[in-house]
């Protein structure tokens, strides 16, 4: 066997072959390490404004639902959306994502959790961004059955 066919290909050490997980950031939440499910949506984020550009660019951004910088929207991966993205590719950032629990229309649900192809959470949904109320209801003086239900719920959460 001739060993000089590929003389410029370096051989990886055993340590380099066994450390692919060290390439990921330690603080990034991951749902699973071996995620073979395909992505189904584009996460489109407006990075630059369309001020001073041709009117067609602003129309494409409006059609994609982007109105403010750093705003993100989700679109299903279709040829028409891909064409619109190509029309304003200099202004936006695109990520391939999928919902964790596929629903009928995940793009309109506010509580959908989105992950990328590596299984890293890119958007935890609106509930995760919501601020706490600042108070807790501990009882009800008007309805006794509601009071019992609230006390049972508070006992489980404590």
Automatic annotation (TrEMBL):
One of its GO terms (biological process) is translation. One of its GO terms (molecular function) is structural constituent of ribosome. InterPro entries: Ribo_uL30_ferredoxin-like_sf, Ribosomal_uL30_bac-type, Ribosomal_uL30_ferredoxin-like. SUPFAM superfamilies: Ribosomal protein L30p/L7e (SSF55129). The keyword Mitochondrion does not apply. Residues 17-38 are annotated as: Disordered. GO terms for cellular component: large ribosomal subunit; mitochondrion. It holds the Pfam family Ribosomal_L30. Keywords: Ribonucleoprotein, Ribosomal protein. Residues 42-92 form the Large ribosomal subunit protein uL30-like ferredoxin-like fold domain. Belongs to the universal ribosomal protein uL30 family. PANTHER family: LARGE RIBOSOMAL SUBUNIT PROTEIN UL30M (PTHR15892:SF2), MITOCHONDRIAL RIBOSOMAL PROTEIN L30 (PTHR15892). This is Large ribosomal subunit protein uL30m. It comes from Malassezia vespertilionis.
